[in-house]
Specification:
Blueprint lengths: L5 E3 L2 E3 L3 E11 L5 E10 L2 E10 L7 H11 L7 E7 L4 H6 L22 H12 L6 E6 L5 E9 L4 H10 L3 E4 L7 H7 L3 E9 L5 H17 L15 E3 L1 E6 L4 E5 L6 E2 L4 E6 L5 E6 L4 E7 L3 E2 L4 E7 L3
Parallel strand pairs: 5-6, 5-7, 7-10, 8-9, 9-11
Antiparallel strand pairs: 1-2, 3-4, 4-6, 8-10, 8-17, 12-19, 13-15, 13-18, 14-17, 15-16, 17-19
Length: 318
């Protein structure tokens, strides 16, 4: 018996086909429509239904390119299951390079949303009803924010064996046990029973090639782990390091920051990470690690004030 067509919005996608569609969000003052871009790849054979999304924060471009590259190599005739791709969730923010919605709300704090709520609530509701509700697994793609850059990492519920297996299959350098945040897509999707991986890598509003490459490879590995595609990427050379605790080292003074710590570097408590200097080059303070760990994030801001977060360290399992 042939596999049934996949229904989403006003369309039905036949097995072995892919289809791009636009789900209406709102209308601008000019009368132009603002839509949620979606592409469905509906395989010929049965398998899981998975979604992948990017740009919930409108200044995070890395994930958009990851999705483009993943879709470019995906053959619906060979796919087992269905993949739903939403490359830009916060369309209005992405058009202006803003992390937030026009009303300054964080879209990733408005889930599961409401069909009659604010603009963010309506986008969240559309995403939940048309995409998440149809899926068993999701991959939410992000980058660092506020002039920060992140080492490729998976944030997920590592206490759940199935989710941890997916995180390990992704093969990022680090997988971090991250609590659920109220209003986030990951939290709302977990409430509906989906397994969710959140990928962090790179810097906002930049196309960091290394972050893109790690994301593309990781997504392909997850699809292969789920049996949706044949494995085309080799397993990671070393397993992902698991972390249940992380924290930011904060500046103890104000000055121009010269960081020596690099992403992925293993450091020991008390090790020098960099220094703060005044405008004439006089050293004001040194920055030291407050724990043993791996550098998974760092600020790229040249000037920091006392109390600003400068280096993100993840404690890892032996």
């Amino acid at each position: 018996m042939p596999r049934p067509s996949f229904e989403i919005g006003p369309v039905r996608v036949r097995p072995g086909r892919h289809h791009a569609l636009s789900l209406p969000i709102t209308r601008l003052v000019t009368g132009a429509e603002v839509d949620l871009p979606v592409r469905v790849v509906h395989g010929r054979e049965d398998g899981p239904t998975v979604w992948i999304n990017a740009a919930i924060h409108g200044d995070e471009a890395v994930g958009v390119e990851i999705i483009r590259q993943v879709l470019a190599d995906l053959d619906p005739k060979a796919l087992r299951g269905t993949l739903i791709a939403v490359p830009i969730v916060n369309v209005l923010g992405f058009m202006t390079g803003s992390r937030y919605l026009p009303d300054r709300r964080d879209l990733n704090r408005t889930f599961p949303g409401s069909a009659r709520g604010s603009l963010g609530a309506r986008i969240a509701d559309l995403m939940m009803t048309e995409v998440v509700a149809k899926c068993e697994v999701g991959i939410d793609l992000h980058t660092g924010s506020d002039r920060r850059t992140n080492l490729p990492q998976i944030r997920a519920d590592l206490d759940d064996a199935r989710t941890r297996a997916l995180a390990a299959a992704f093969g990022a350098p680090v997988m971090l046990h991250a609590r659920l945040r109220d209003g986030s897509l990951r939290s709302a999707a977990r409430e509906q029973g989906a397994l969710v991986l959140l990928y962090e890598a790179g810097e906002a509003w930049r196309m960091d090639r290394w972050a893109i490459e790690a994301g593309v490879v990781g997504v392909r590995r997850v699809l292969a782990h789920l049996g949706m595609v044949e494995a085309v990427e080799p397993p990671p050379a070393t397993p992902s390091l698991a972390s249940w605790r992380s924290g930011w080292v904060r500046a103890r003074g104000t000055g121009m920051l010269h960081l020596e710590a690099q992403l992925g570097q293993h450091v020991r408590e008390g090790e020098r990470l960099g220094g703060l200097f005044d405008s004439f080059g006089k050293r004001v303070r040194l920055v030291h690690a407050d724990r043993d760990g791996v550098v998974i994030g760092r600020t790229e801001a040249p000037l920091v004030n006392a109390g600003d977060a400068v280096v993100h360290l993840a404690e890892v399992e032996a």
